[in-house]
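Page 47, continued from p. 46.
Same chain as before, 257 aa.
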Amino acid sequence: MKARIFVLCLVAAICALPIVAQNIPAGDDLWSTVGGGSSYTTLTDADWFALCGVHPGNVTVNLKGQALSGMGNGDTIVTRLDAASLPTVPSSATVRIQLKSLSMVNDGSHPCSPYTLTVVPSGTQSIDNMTITRSGSGGGTFVAVVPVKVAITAYNGGTVVGSTVVSGSLGDTTTTTPWSYSPPVGGAIQPSPWYPAVDPNTQRPVTGCRFGNESAPSEHCYQQASCPGGAVAKSTIRSKAIAKNLCAVQAQPVIER
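Result:
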């Protein structure tokens, strides 16, 4: 009897171990781009001419996210191609990463106004690295460099006016962004044993930024993606995931009168 109780207690203790005992598997990180001047790219005079036939010189255009279908307000997906082993505090691991999806539009006026500018991936994306550091029991920090090759297209309604392809790398290697083993307050869209851009001490989402090191400056600021008003993440309500729709309207309780 004592042996059985010991085994049951041991099993319970193992099951109760926090998720920090696990490593971080390969997978996707879903971001929501921060607009309002926080995210932008600088296009050359030749790019603007290709877009709409103007010669304004090198001019910066502000960008904002355009949500991917079924992804809440998420507009950018970066894939971690490798698992990260973080067995102790402190420890770190470097994994390969690659841009998977991206959808942005201009945020405000630009030299081709009133045309709408869209930004989407172009061709095969290059691979670079993310370094994840575990600095405490609840999480740590990470830095990353994301190679980006995108097609920028000017539209007049549904008609293409012109397009150009630009490429470079967006990195945050000089500043770190926190991550947490626990989901942010309000839940996360995608269930995962790690939640990047979440403060491990407060469980509050934070903003991370990656800066382009090319001669034409670019910056992409991002936060954890969330579901629109009236909907919750399926990982929060624990319903069966639907691959192309990560948010669901939560049923309201019926109050009998």
